[in-house]
Design goal:
Blueprint: H1 7-22, H2 28-34, H3 39-55, H4 64-74, H5 79-96, H6 100-120
Helix pairs in contact: 1-3, 1-5, 4-6, 5-6
Bound molecules: protoporphyrin IX containing FE.
Amino acid sequence: MRDITNREDLLFLMEAFYSKMLNDEQIGYIFTDVAKLDLAHHLPLLADFWNNALFHTGGYKNNVVQIHKNLDALEKLTPEHFKQWQLLLGETIDQNFKGEIAEKMKIRASQVGMTIQAKLGHYS
Ligand code: HEM
Protein backbone atom coordinates (compact mmCIF):
# COMPACT_ATOMS: atom_id res chain seq x y z
CA MET A 1 0.00 0.00 0.00
CA ARG A 2 1.23 3.51 -0.79
CA ASP A 3 0.93 6.85 1.02
CA ILE A 4 -1.46 9.71 0.23
CA THR A 5 0.25 12.01 -2.28
CA ASN A 6 -2.21 14.53 -3.74
CA ARG A 7 -5.73 15.97 -3.95
CA GLU A 8 -6.90 13.14 -6.17
CA ASP A 9 -6.04 10.64 -3.42
CA LEU A 10 -7.91 12.83 -0.92
CA LEU A 11 -11.03 13.03 -3.09
CA PHE A 12 -10.94 9.25 -3.45
CA LEU A 13 -10.61 8.93 0.35
CA MET A 14 -13.51 11.31 1.00
CA GLU A 15 -15.75 9.31 -1.34
CA ALA A 16 -14.86 6.09 0.49
CA PHE A 17 -15.25 7.79 3.91
CA TYR A 18 -18.68 9.21 3.06
CA SER A 19 -19.95 5.92 1.68
CA LYS A 20 -19.23 4.46 5.14
CA MET A 21 -20.62 7.46 7.03
CA LEU A 22 -23.87 7.77 5.09
CA ASN A 23 -24.69 4.16 5.94
CA ASP A 24 -23.62 4.42 9.58
CA GLU A 25 -26.33 3.80 12.19
CA GLN A 26 -24.97 6.38 14.63
CA ILE A 27 -24.08 9.33 12.43
CA GLY A 28 -25.45 8.66 8.93
CA TYR A 29 -28.67 10.60 9.56
CA ILE A 30 -26.76 13.81 10.31
CA PHE A 31 -25.51 13.88 6.72
CA THR A 32 -28.65 12.60 5.02
CA ASP A 33 -31.50 14.00 7.14
CA VAL A 34 -30.08 16.98 9.07
CA ALA A 35 -27.55 18.61 6.72
CA LYS A 36 -29.08 17.01 3.58
CA LEU A 37 -25.71 17.31 1.87
CA ASP A 38 -25.15 17.64 -1.83
CA LEU A 39 -22.07 15.40 -2.06
CA ALA A 40 -21.08 16.70 -5.50
CA HIS A 41 -20.58 20.08 -3.82
CA HIS A 42 -19.37 18.92 -0.40
CA LEU A 43 -16.71 16.31 -1.23
CA PRO A 44 -14.52 18.63 -3.36
CA LEU A 45 -14.52 21.14 -0.46
CA LEU A 46 -13.33 18.42 1.90
CA ALA A 47 -10.58 17.48 -0.58
CA ASP A 48 -9.54 21.17 -0.62
CA PHE A 49 -9.53 21.28 3.18
CA TRP A 50 -7.32 18.19 3.45
CA ASN A 51 -5.06 19.23 0.59
CA ASN A 52 -4.33 22.43 2.48
CA ALA A 53 -4.09 20.74 5.90
CA LEU A 54 -1.63 18.08 4.69
CA PHE A 55 0.24 19.73 1.80
CA HIS A 56 -0.14 23.47 2.63
CA THR A 57 -1.52 24.26 -0.79
CA GLY A 58 -3.76 27.16 0.30
CA GLY A 59 -7.11 27.37 -1.43
CA TYR A 60 -9.33 26.51 1.53
CA LYS A 61 -10.94 29.50 3.23
CA ASN A 62 -14.05 28.27 5.06
CA ASN A 63 -14.46 28.41 8.84
CA VAL A 64 -14.65 24.77 9.92
CA VAL A 65 -15.53 25.54 13.54
CA GLN A 66 -18.41 27.84 12.53
CA ILE A 67 -19.74 25.25 10.04
CA HIS A 68 -19.98 22.69 12.85
CA LYS A 69 -21.45 25.25 15.28
CA ASN A 70 -24.24 25.82 12.76
CA LEU A 71 -24.73 22.08 12.42
CA ASP A 72 -24.70 21.62 16.22
CA ALA A 73 -27.53 24.16 16.47
CA LEU A 74 -29.65 21.89 14.26
CA GLU A 75 -28.62 18.62 15.91
CA LYS A 76 -26.37 18.35 18.96
CA LEU A 77 -22.99 16.86 18.00
CA THR A 78 -21.95 14.61 20.89
CA PRO A 79 -18.55 13.17 21.87
CA GLU A 80 -19.91 9.79 20.65
CA HIS A 81 -20.60 11.29 17.21
CA PHE A 82 -17.04 12.60 17.07
CA LYS A 83 -15.62 9.22 18.16
CA GLN A 84 -17.57 7.41 15.47
CA TRP A 85 -16.58 9.98 12.82
CA GLN A 86 -12.93 9.51 13.75
CA LEU A 87 -13.16 5.71 13.85
CA LEU A 88 -14.64 5.62 10.34
CA LEU A 89 -12.04 8.04 8.97
CA GLY A 90 -9.22 5.97 10.54
CA GLU A 91 -10.66 2.77 9.03
CA THR A 92 -11.00 4.37 5.60
CA ILE A 93 -7.42 5.67 5.66
CA ASP A 94 -5.98 2.35 6.86
CA GLN A 95 -7.88 0.36 4.23
CA ASN A 96 -6.48 2.46 1.39
CA PHE A 97 -3.18 4.12 2.30
CA LYS A 98 -0.12 3.62 4.48
CA GLY A 99 2.64 6.06 5.40
CA GLU A 100 3.64 9.30 7.02
CA ILE A 101 0.90 11.46 5.45
CA ALA A 102 -1.75 8.83 6.23
CA GLU A 103 -0.67 8.96 9.90
CA LYS A 104 -0.57 12.76 9.83
CA MET A 105 -4.13 12.85 8.50
CA LYS A 106 -5.41 10.76 11.44
CA ILE A 107 -3.62 13.00 13.96
CA ARG A 108 -4.84 16.20 12.28
CA ALA A 109 -8.43 14.89 12.19
CA SER A 110 -8.26 14.19 15.90
CA GLN A 111 -6.83 17.67 16.62
CA VAL A 112 -9.51 19.42 14.55
CA GLY A 113 -12.14 17.23 16.24
CA MET A 114 -10.89 18.33 19.69
CA THR A 115 -10.88 21.98 18.62
CA ILE A 116 -14.43 21.79 17.28
CA GLN A 117 -15.67 20.01 20.41
CA ALA A 118 -13.96 22.55 22.68
CA LYS A 119 -15.62 25.39 20.78
CA LEU A 120 -19.00 23.66 20.99
CA GLY A 121 -18.51 23.53 24.73
CA HIS A 122 -19.21 19.84 25.18
CA TYR A 123 -16.00 18.12 26.16
CA SER A 124 -16.52 14.57 27.44
C1 HEM B 1 -19.55 14.52 14.84
C2 HEM B 1 -18.65 14.61 13.89
C3 HEM B 1 -18.91 15.35 12.59
C4 HEM B 1 -20.06 15.45 11.86
C5 HEM B 1 -21.40 14.78 12.12
C6 HEM B 1 -19.75 16.31 10.73
C7 HEM B 1 -20.66 16.68 9.75
C8 HEM B 1 -20.43 17.65 8.82
C9 HEM B 1 -21.43 18.19 7.93
C10 HEM B 1 -22.88 17.72 7.85
C11 HEM B 1 -20.85 19.16 7.21
C12 HEM B 1 -21.50 20.05 6.16
C13 HEM B 1 -22.16 21.24 6.79
C14 HEM B 1 -22.83 22.10 5.75
O1 HEM B 1 -22.18 22.47 4.76
O2 HEM B 1 -24.00 22.40 5.93
C15 HEM B 1 -19.46 19.23 7.61
C16 HEM B 1 -18.52 20.07 7.09
C17 HEM B 1 -17.18 19.90 7.28
N1 HEM B 1 -16.57 19.00 8.14
FE1 HEM B 1 -17.50 17.90 9.48
N2 HEM B 1 -18.45 16.71 10.81
C18 HEM B 1 -17.90 16.14 11.93
C19 HEM B 1 -16.61 16.28 12.35
C20 HEM B 1 -15.59 16.80 11.59
C21 HEM B 1 -14.20 16.76 11.93
C22 HEM B 1 -13.60 16.12 13.20
C23 HEM B 1 -13.53 17.35 10.93
C24 HEM B 1 -12.05 17.46 10.93
C25 HEM B 1 -11.28 17.61 9.91
C26 HEM B 1 -14.51 17.79 9.93
C27 HEM B 1 -14.27 18.45 8.74
C28 HEM B 1 -15.21 19.13 8.01
C29 HEM B 1 -14.92 20.17 7.04
C30 HEM B 1 -13.54 20.61 6.58
C31 HEM B 1 -16.14 20.66 6.59
C32 HEM B 1 -16.41 21.85 5.70
C33 HEM B 1 -16.41 21.68 4.25
C34 HEM B 1 -16.80 23.03 3.65
O3 HEM B 1 -15.91 23.89 3.48
O4 HEM B 1 -17.99 23.24 3.37
N3 HEM B 1 -15.75 17.42 10.37
N4 HEM B 1 -19.24 18.30 8.60
